[in-house]
């Protein structure tokens, strides 16, 4: 099943899935965000083409295209370092970031930020011999011109066990993740509309039966 579609508002929502290799990009745009125009988006191999390359700051560039839209994402560590797992705070607009700041830029459909503030997390990343990324699990948040409305994204590329959900119409209180195969479970208090069980610590192998329960109030 696709556990990443917006969930119907309710007090208790559940989804179950089988872990498998997948590429996906989830975007959640606040009202007033210029880039995403206040909309939510889901792209996978089924409805979009993903092209990765190495940018000139030793970072990661991604182009996502469909027949009627296109998006570009750039991520870079400070001081031209290769991106590794970790949290990158205080990001500035790529490629105009200062040497001591990470770079971030998400744009598309003719819209881009003149300046931005933001952050991103790299949860997993592997590279080929040419330095181009071969697998990636990351999330990012950017604010155009330093304004309050945010564009948030969650990206998984060529991973065996990306396990995320996105919600709408629910004021979320907790997420419960259960690996029915191993018996491991975890509960996390979070109001975030984007949540990934693997990022939260759930251990999953390909083929494991997994369920995700969302507990909250209908908006």
UniProtKB/TrEMBL annotation:
Organism: Aquipseudomonas campi
Entry keyword set: Signal
PROSITE patterns: PROKAR_LIPOPROTEIN
Name of the protein: Lipoprotein
Signal sequence coordinates: 1-21
């Amino acid at each position: 099943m696709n556990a990443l579609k917006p969930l119907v508002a309710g007090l208790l929502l559940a989804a179950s899935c089988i872990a498998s290799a997948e590429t996906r990009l989830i975007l959640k745009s606040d009202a007033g965000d210029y880039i995403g125009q206040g909309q939510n988006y889901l792209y996978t191999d089924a409805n979009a083409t993903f092209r990765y390359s190495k940018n000139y700051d030793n970072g990661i560039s991604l182009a996502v295209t469909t027949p009627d839209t296109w998006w570009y994402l750039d991520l870079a560590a400070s001081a031209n370092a290769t991106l590794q797992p970790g949290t990158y705070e205080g990001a500035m607009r790529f490629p105009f970031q200062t040497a001591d700041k990470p770079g971030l830029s998400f744009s598309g459909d003719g819209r881009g930020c003149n300046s931005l503030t933001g952050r991103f997390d790299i949860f997993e990343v592997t590279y080929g011999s040419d330095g181009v990324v071969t697998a990636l699990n990351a999330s990012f948040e950017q604010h155009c011109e330093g304004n309050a409305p945010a564009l948030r994204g969650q990206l998984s590329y060529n991973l065996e066990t990306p396990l995320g959900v996105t919600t709408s119409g629910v004021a979320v209180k907790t997420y419960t993740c259960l690996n029915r195969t191993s018996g491991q479970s975890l509960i996390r208090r979070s109001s975030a509309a984007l949540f990934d069980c693997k990022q939260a610590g759930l251990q999953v192998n390909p083929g494991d039966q997994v369920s995700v329960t969302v507990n909250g109030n209908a908006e």
